[in-house]
Specification:
4 helices, mainly alpha, elongated, single chain
Length: about 60
Amino acid sequence: MRSKVMLNLGQVDRRIQNWLDRVFPEYTEVFKNLEGRASLITLRKSPLLQDLVSLGAARL
């Protein structure tokens, strides 16, 4: 059972990484820890690239 859960977790991690690479190609250069507090807050507040652009550099 545990090995099945770990396999699924690995698949989910790869899917998230693939999505981030497509939508935010530079994301891993800015945030080294994808599960870090700043990373998660950024994704929660601006899930799309257009959201980040509309915020502007000053508000980021």
